């Protein structure tokens, strides 16, 4: 026990703090819910990201172990761990990007909406911390139901007077990742070559893969369209059932969250042409929030792209999606405004 794991990142025998202060330029990133099924592999992936200089891992349980473990990786980011509500403010102070995978996941038979009761309160309290300690940070919200938790976060930030819609992004990347994979399987090509826009929201019929806009340009039979749309919409349930009570997607979700966070960081750095789908405040439809392609820049979601031309099938699916989304958004808003 001569060299105890450095929970606050201050090993006994470190000669100076110069790496944290004057090391490679990079961004400060916090993960809230870092000890969870998503949080752990996401912590690993963010520690590997060369754009990250400081990585704060916060949870209400087990963050010391995850921090000690990840901090031994010989990559650039300095890792610090934070445990419990009393340490939330320290975890958040100075952060450029906050990623939130905190909250309970689905079990077989549950919808994402069934998670609302518990996760709504968790997201509310974490966002109150963000408003207080790092109001200028970009927020990547993963906790479900995303269709309601993003409106909750917006209301918390409005109340605190810190709301900037460009900086609040619901993470729907897993739907895109799944759509790219399933479309590539059907076409018999490499998924890395495929780009499927997925719009709407992040739950059941609100997940709308726009198969008419797939790149590279291709066409599908109506049977393929039905199969692909259903598989993308139910991809999460496929994993929940296969895990049989042991949780929902964690590894593919961590991959998707890391991909999205990296895009946000490249945008913050000023890279041009960074475009991802995300559930954001939007005027693309009459709903106050909607997922579409957005361009990420120094201030977050700087441009929101329109839906583009839709087929009749997609227009019908959009109508269904909007109906469900409207209720989920309202539920989130009234949770905070009650
Ligand atoms: P998990 O239960 O394995 O981990 C959640 C972690 O959050 C736990 O370590 C728990 O201690 C922590 N936590 C609970 N309350 C907290 C609080 N107040 N502050 C900080 N941490 C807190 O769950 P898992 O599988 O990691 O899923 C997390 C969330 O992500 C769930 O809500 C799930 O539905 C959602 N999810 C979202 C997806 C998306 O595409 N946006 C995809 C898959 C899951």
TrEMBL record:
It is an enzyme of class 1 (oxidoreductase). GO terms for biological process: glyoxylate cycle; malate metabolic process; tricarboxylic acid cycle. Pfam families: Ldh_1_C, Ldh_1_N. The active site is at residue 202. Residues 28-170 form the Lactate/malate dehydrogenase N-terminal domain. One of its GO terms (molecular function) is L-malate dehydrogenase (NAD+) activity. CDD domains: MDH_glyoxysomal_mitochondrial (cd01337). Coiled coil: none annotated. Keywords: Glyoxylate bypass, NAD, Oxidoreductase, Peroxisome, Tricarboxylic acid cycle. The keyword Membrane does not apply. Its main location: other. It is found in: Peroxisome. The keyword NAD applies. Substrate binds at residues 106, 112, 144, 178. NAD(+) binds at residues 33-39, 59, 119, 142-144, 253. InterPro entries: L-lactate/malate_DH (IPR001557), Lactate/malate_DH_C (IPR022383), Lactate/malate_DH_N (IPR001236), Lactate_DH/Glyco_Ohase_4_C (IPR015955), Malate_DH_AS (IPR001252), Malate_DH_type1 (IPR010097), NAD(P)-bd_dom_sf (IPR036291). GO terms for cellular component: chloroplast; peroxisome. Residues 172-335 form the Lactate/malate dehydrogenase C-terminal domain. Homodimer. Belongs to the LDH/MDH superfamily. MDH type 1 family. This is Malate dehydrogenase. It comes from Canna indica.
